[in-house]
Amino acid sequence: MNPIQHILNQFPLIVLDGAMATELERHGHDLNDSLWSAKILYEHPEAIKQVHRDYFEAGADCAITASYQATIEGYVRRGLSEHEALELIQSSVRIAVQARDEFWAEAATAANQQHRPKPLVAASVGPYGAFLADGSEYRGDYKLTEEQLAEFHRPRMKALIEAGADILACETIPCLVEAKAIARLLKEFPGTYAWISFSARDGQHISNGESAAACAEWLNEHEQVAAVGINCTLPKHIPSLIHEIRSRTDKPVVVYPNLGEEYDPETKTWHGTACTETLGQSARQWYDAGARLIGGCCRTRPQDIKEIAVWSRDV
Question: Using an 8 Å Cβ cutoff, are 163 and 123 in contact?
């Protein structure tokens, strides 16, 4: 069964978690590296488990694994074998599942399960641009064909599915050709569902300039795409993007923007001013606009997710 629809049949909203990488940085880990948070999978896996746990305790109904920048090619460049790379990629799912199962067992004793679904584990599938580590997931200007992109994504998707993920989170996708590659690749894995979320440059267009509405329309025909939306985008663009997406698809809309700052791919740092409105306040507006999976991306924290969870239980 489509795990997103299964939950939305019983609850009005799925609360996603927040940032993994910037939360790891707040805990003292250095992520100025081409592997980004994927580096921590083999250096300090217990730190990733703790971040997942923090988000579950804050009220998240879904953990997104630390596999965004974990690729076979990236790990092989670092000197690992292909087998070791696949093992690390799969470990991202096992870590999240263990954190979820331990939390849920304790939640049962606290008698609060009736107010929320058992959380999902969504395996992060970052774009090809994340592997390049040059910020191109916010431009979409890499020159690969749909088939080349499918070849890149296939082994990691297979590994994440076999590791036991509930769903795939194909996120920060900057161009429709990559979304097409992923959507068609899903057919090789019957019974597997994914959400596809794009990075966007403004209130109507994804990062490479294509229409968000047109992307949603194309994906609407693909049953294994369980939700369509936007992530790691300025919050001010989200209401318009929800409208654009909903105009062309009846699939649930997923949104998890950053806090409004600008990312520098050279230094891998964030600059500028965050939004004055809290994520919790904005999330109410996004829900009213039609979003049904809401969380946070870069720079968001467990407290931000808690703000969403608190009011969402009373919707």
Answer: yes
For position 273, what pLDDT does the model report?
Answer: 53
Per-residue pLDDT reduced to its tens digit, 169-191: 999 999 999 999 999 999 999 99
- Stretches where the chain sits below pLDDT 50 are none
Residue numbers in the known binding site are 232, 297-298
What residue numbers does the annotated binding site for Zn(2+) cover?
232, 297-298
Q: Over the chain, what is the mean pLDDT?
A: 92
Domain ranges of the chain: 3-312
Q: Phi and psi (nearest 5°) for 40?
A: -75, -20
Name the CATH code of domain 3-312 (choices 3.20.20.330, 1.10.510.10, 3.40.50.12780, 2.40.50.100): 3.20.20.330
What pLDDT shows up at residue 94? 98
Residue 38: strand, helix, or coil: helix
Give the torsion through C-alpha atoms of 85, 86, 91, 92, to 10 deg. Answer: 80
CA dist 165 to 63, 118, 124, Å?
A: 10, 14, 10
Angle between helices 146-162 and 82-109 (to 10 degrees): 50
Q: Which of 165, 172, 184 is nearest to 222 (CA)?
A: 184
